[in-house]
Amino acid sequence: MTRAVHLSGTMIPTGAEVEVDITIHTRLHVSPYVAKQKANICLALHCGQSFCVDDPILQVAEQVVWLVPVWLSPPQAGRKAKMGELVVDAQTGEVLDSGARCRVLQQIANALLSTTPPAPLNAPAA
User: Fold this and answer.
1) Which domain holds residue 78?
2) Is 104 contained in some domain?
């Protein structure tokens, strides 16, 4: 995993050699599979059936979380667009800010669906 490190307020002379070594040790109590399940349940309960998720990405920062990508996926059209992410705590399995995130996902989905013409159910006969 590649992470960016930003240094500010430090004077680093030109040509200086810089070595940064960061070690983080934590035990993950929630697997990526369980994080994906938690996100799917949250979407089903709060957003409806027009969403699907991808494999989670582990984010190590102040808090260790799984970022679960959420896609708009209406039944008639299949996967259309990545909508955002749900954040699942890798220690507790809690979907963080689930209510607020689901409201935002629904707003984005409604905006996208209202600007996209519906796909024809059957192709016209030639």
Assistant:
1) 32-115
2) yes
Q: 81-92: per-residue pLDDT in tens?
A: 788 899 999 999
Q: Looking at the domain assignment, is residue 60 inside a domain?
A: yes
Task: Give the DSSP per-residue string, 38-101.
Answer: HHHHHHHHHT-SSEEE---EEEESSSEEEEEEEEE--TTT---EEEEEEEEETTT--EETHHHH
pLDDT of residue 121: 43
What contacts 116, CB < 8 A, 6 or more positions away?
80
| CA 84/CA 34 separation, integer angstroms | 19
Cα–Cα distances (Å) from 54 to 7, 22, 83, in that order, read: 33, 29, 11
